[in-house]
Design goal:
48% helix
């Protein structure tokens, strides 16, 4: 298998062609040539005027790779979610991956209009569930595990959403491993969430769709990369498109640093979207599974499902 981290640069994507200039929604751009998929940072802070512009894209579905608690805690008036049904995706066991996609209504305060008048649906995904946490936890030494449990107790008492627990693991485990390892962990331990998201994208009635997370570069970047590879884009194109988030997030660089470095004590490198990080992630897929198609089969998206997704996104 060729080493994609050393692939020859080619003429790739640029923000002038793909970017959509909406001032209060950083990192917004098209993903595919037919404008069936867009990607962005969280829409919680979009202004009333920019909501009108965003609604002109005709988005029917938002795949939001934040947990319900992360969504609720995020600042902003969430004006874009007017006329939107908000649900949390329920992750089935690996043995039941072919079961229908199950969701649970998310109660938002204040509540929006009745469902009959809603024109969009926001799916919330918790990428960091127990299996992910366990995988990171066992990498720590025994005394680090003990200290982390003490932080966990403090977090539970203070009800601060595991801030100190995550901070400790950020410094002791996640920072030394780097952002690339976090992406690999998402591929392995959040694979069911990825599979559900791709199944939703394969349904024409869910399109156009907007894929997002907190900043639109990490969780979003991984899923977008898989879609683009399935559509035949080169590894260079995918990595360069991912790196456009460096430009897309320039206007909110300070906010990104506060939310990543100040809050969770992650390394400064976690605030960036460098081409090399995505190339390393793609190399892992090829080295471990042979191809993106084989990876998708492994996580439960079979050949027929993959073809259905391609047809939905390529249709004019």
């Amino acid at each position: 298998m060729a080493d994609v981290t050393k692939s020859i640069p080619v003429s790739g994507p640029n923000m002038e062609e793909l970017g959509i200039p909406i001032a209060t929604l950083p990192n917004l751009r098209r993903v595919d040539s037919t404008s069936k998929i867009f990607r962005s940072s969280r829409q919680d802070l979009v202004s009333p005027e920019d909501c009108k512009k965003l609604n002109q894209l005709g988005i029917r579905t938002i795949l939001d790779f934040r947990s319900p608690s992360e969504y609720k805690l995020a600042s902003g008036n969430k004006l874009f979610d007017a006329n939107t049904e908000i649900v949390s995706t329920l992750v089935p066991s690996k043995k039941n991956r072919d079961s229908p996609i199950r969701t649970k209504k998310v109660t938002v305060n204040p509540p929006g209009p009745e469902y009959e008048s809603r024109v969009k649906r926001r799916y919330l995904f918790d990428f960091f569930q127990l299996n992910y946490i366990k995988a990171v936890f066992v990498r720590a030494t025994w005394y680090q595990q003990l200290i982390s449990l003490l932080y966990l107790i403090v977090d539970l008492i203070m009800r601060n959403h595991f801030k100190y627990f995550v901070r400790y693991f950020g410094v002791t485990v996640l920072n030394p491993a780097g952002l690339g390892q976090q992406y690999i962990d998402i591929l392995e331990y959040s694979s069911t969430q990825i599979q559900i998201a791709l199944r939703l994208l394969s349904e024409p009635e869910n399109l156009p769709a907007l894929i997002s997370c907190a900043h639109g570069k990490d969780r979003t970047g991984i899923v977008v990369a898989l879609v683009q590879l399935l559509l035949g884009k080169s590894t260079d194109y995918v990595a360069e498109e991912y790196a456009l988030s460096e430009i897309g997030l320039q206007g909110i660089r300070q906010r990104v640093e506060v939310e990543i470095i100040d809050r969770f004590h992650f390394d400064e490198s976690f605030t960036h979207a460098r081409k090399e990080t995505m190339l390393t992630t793609l190399q892992y897929i090829y080295d471990t599974y042979g191809s993106v198609e084989s990876y998708l089969e492994y996580i439960g998206l079979g050949k027929e499902d993959q073809e259905k997704l391609k047809q939905a996104l390529e249709a004019e």
